[in-house]
TrEMBL record, chain A:
GO terms for cellular component: endomembrane system; plasma membrane. NCBIfam families: PRK12405.1 (NF009070). The keyword Transmembrane applies. The chain crosses the membrane at residues 21-38, 44-65, 72-90, 102-120, 127-151, 171-196. PANTHER family: ELECTRON TRANSPORT COMPLEX PROTEIN RNFE, ION-TRANSLOCATING OXIDOREDUCTASE COMPLEX SUBUNIT E. It comes from the Bacteria. It comes from Limihaloglobus sulfuriphilus. This is Nitrogen fixation protein RnfE.
UniProtKB/TrEMBL annotation, chain B:
InterPro entries: NqrDE/RnfAE (IPR003667), NqrDE/RnfAE_oxidrdctase (IPR050133). This is Electron transport complex protein RnfA. Keywords: Membrane, Translocase, Transmembrane, Transmembrane helix, Transport. It comes from Limihaloglobus sulfuriphilus. Signal peptide: none annotated. The chain crosses the membrane at residues 6-29, 41-62, 74-95, 107-128, 134-158, 170-195. The keyword Transmembrane applies.
Length: 202, 196
């Protein structure tokens, strides 16, 4: 029973307390680059979750064999294998999405979140915990990306998933679809998270 | 003549207009992590410039002369990451031998150049933008490094001043840095119309 509790807390940590984007500030590049609309944010989040989950499990299985000076190489090779799978999958089944995300899918290889989890969790703990950790972190990442994508899509285009949700008089600010919007939105959201955390601590 | 002009234009466009940090969101982690002090930012910029130039040229050659010729594109990502890891190892050995104090202050961030998305990103973009000559690939990868150095140095300069500013509590640290980066990106958008 105590075991279940621990597993669950590992899972929850990824979603709020150690949320990859808000608390650990990892995986910034895709966070900023692909959150122009919710759909690409969701695709990116799910691909990253898939890679994170698989690489966490494989690294955890290999952890007895890891040599300290070779581990980063082994991590990146494992990760790039799974990224190749994800990339080919997207090319085959979601060609326009794959076109739109372009090089940001292969860039999951160098996403610090995935390497960080391989180093901090998977290379030290068992397969089950690594699996749960990967799932929690991946979901936390996906949720954060979707929130960011939703805010930016509503402000820049007045739509969600491509459907118009705002009333006619709504003034869209296209700047939010551009790099400026990405940086500023994320900065303000981090500020908001800080405020919430101080409130919770009291 | 046209050739030289094309090279110069490509260089300017990648340094200013298509700056990897401000318009492609690449290399954000070291950009936020090492931009606290200007000397470190500069050292980091130089290290990245070296690695990106070397690996840009190498991956271009591997991609065009080996992978595409033998239809091995499927191992592209694996091959690229090996080249980059090798180049970073080289830099790490060099810096440790000749600049031990810089090596100390970089800490983990030097090894993390391997996972700097600016480098892999550029190698992939070279392929995506259909660069046709190796000279062009060299110029563009060098320009990307210079652009990154410029961006991180500007940021370090601003952050040194920010320490003295009165920032609201909830925005201290990362949030205000991100907002600053956003404003810089806005400024850099102004260069957008310069080259078609």
């Amino acid at each position: 029973m105590a075991d279940d509790k621990k597993t669950f807390s590992v899972f929850l940590a990824g979603i709020w307390k150690e949320n990859p984007v808000f608390a650990l500030l990892l995986g910034m590049c895709p966070t900023l680059a692909v959150t122009g609309d919710v759909k690409s944010a969701l695709t990116m989040g799910l691909s990253a979750t898939f890679v994170l989950l698989c690489s966490n499990v494989v690294v955890s299985l290999l952890r007895g064999l890891l040599k300290p000076h070779l581990r980063i190489l082994i991590f990146t090779l494992t990760i790039s294998t799974f990224v190749t799978i994800a990339d080919l999958f997207l090319k085959a089944f979601l060609p326009d999405m794959s076109e739109k995300l372009g090089p940001y899918i292969p860039l999951i290889i160098v996403n610090c979140l995935i390497i960080c989890r391989a180093e901090a969790c998977a290379s030290k703990s068992g397969v089950w915990i690594s699996f749960v950790d990967g799932l929690g972190m991946g979901l936390g990442f996906t949720i954060t990306l979707c929130i960011l994508g939703a805010v930016r899509e509503i402000l820049s285009l007045g739509s969600l998933f491509g459907y118009r949700v705002m009333p006619d008089g709504f003034i869209t600010m296209f700047a939010f679809a551009l790099p400026v919007g990405a940086f500023v939105t994320l900065g303000l959201m981090l500020g908001l998270v800080n405020i919430i955390n101080t409130k919770l601590a009291k | 003549m046209d050739n030289v002009q094309a090279l110069i234009l490509a260089f300017i466009s990648i340094v200013i207009v298509n700056n990897l940090v401000f318009s492609k969101f690449l290399g954000i982690c070291p950009y936020l992590g090492v931009s606290g002090r200007i000397d470190m930012a500069f050292g980091m910029g130089l290290a990245v410039t070296f690695v990106v130039t070397l690996s840009g040229i190498m991956t271009y050659m591997i991609d065009n002369y080996v992978l595409m010729r033998f239809n091995l594109e499927i191992v592209r990502y694996v091959a690229f990451i090996m080249v980059i890891a090798g180049a970073v190892q080289l830099v790490e050995m060099y810096v440790r031998k000749f600049f031990p104090s810089l090596y100390e202050s970089f800490g983990i961030f030097l090894a993390l150049i391997t996972t700097n998305c600016a480098i892999l990103g550029l190698c992939l973009f070279l392929n995506l933008w259909e660069v046709h000559s190796i000279l062009m690939a060299a110029v563009m990868s060098f320009g990307a490094g210079i652009g990154f150095t410029m961006a991180i140095c500007i940021m370090a300069g601003i952050r040194e001043e920010l320490e003295l500013a009165n920032v609201p509590d909830c925005l201290k640290g990362a949030p205000i840095t991100l907002i600053t980066a956003g404003l810089l990106a806005l400024a850099f958008m102004g260069f957008g119309g310069m080259i078609k």
